[in-house]
Amino acid sequence: KLADDCANRALSDREGGGLAKSFPLPVENDESRPRIDLVVFIINLTSELSFQSAEASLKYLEPGYFLGKVCFMVSNVGKL
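Below the sequence we write its predicted structure tokens.
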């Protein structure tokens, strides 16, 4: 529920928040894209595809970006 609420909030945020399903981000509108202050990986523990998508996206982030700008949110922990 929390992961869904966060994703819905990012989609409806009018202050520049955004949501991407995976990295890399598309190059169109690259120059007008707002600065990225935080990356949240939402991982559904009951979905192998969700884990694989997050894992594949990690390689597109600079290593230094992980210091305070990345967090992982997991869902469906109780269903394991």
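The chain has a mean pLDDT of 78.
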